[in-house]
Amino acid sequence: MIEYIICMIAIIPFMGFGISLMFKNTDEKHIAFIASSTTILVIALNIVILVKTLLSGHEPVHTDVVNLYTSSHFTFSIDLYYDWLSAVFSFIGGYLFWIISRFSKTYMHRESGYKRFFNHFLLFFSGINLLVISGNFETLFLGWEIVGVSSFLRSEEHTSELQSR
Fold it and tell me: What backbone phi and psi angles, to 5 degrees, belong to 78?
């Protein structure tokens, strides 16, 4: 049961990102709702895991989600690992991202890049979540690359806006 919840912590931000892509730039209320509810859901799942681990013991959970490539010397897989350290970082990260989503809802109101900001925001949140609960180096690298791509896209957008002025 806990393994499924940990998988959901990794998948839900990606789902929020995918859902936010479907809205128009003028649907600010829906985009902000998706971002805020995604972060709240991750926080709630972290609380559920915290309660379950407190009741059942303090054992870390390691789950092998999918094997992408296997050879005689190497296995490339997506692994998730959840212990006290990842619980703290995941909870605090979710809380900070929730605060940012609530603030940005009013701060970015009627800006031309509203949807783009929240898309980058959710992609960045997905990468951070994957970084925090990664169970092996390959998954850590995947999360790191998602964070890097979302940061690069945001900085390229900002640079092009400054050059057009």
Answer: -95, 110
CA triplet 53, 121, 9: central angle to 5 degrees? 20
Selection from 100, 84, 165 nearest residue 132 by Cα: 84
Name residue 134's beta-bridge partners.
80
Q: What is the pLDDT of residues 112-150, one digit of tens each?
A: 888 889 999 999 999 999 999 999 999 999 999 999 999
pLDDT band at 157 (very low <50, low <70, confident <90, very high): low
pTM for this predicted structure:
0.86
Query: Of 37, 45, 46, 47, which is closest to residue 16 (Cα–Cα)?
Result: 37
Averaged over 54-60, what is the pLDDT? 79
Contacts of 44 (CB under 8 A, 6+ apart): none
Give the other-Cβ count within 10 Å of 128's Cβ: 22
| Angle in degrees, 0-180, between the axes of helices 114-132 and 84-107, rounded to the nearest 10 | 170
Q: For residues 68 and 48, what is the distance between their CA atoms, to the nearest angstrom? A: 29
Reported for 109-114, long-range contacts at CB under 8 A and 24+ positions apart, including other chains, are: 109/28, 110/28, 112/25, 113/157, 113/161, 114/25, 114/28, 114/31
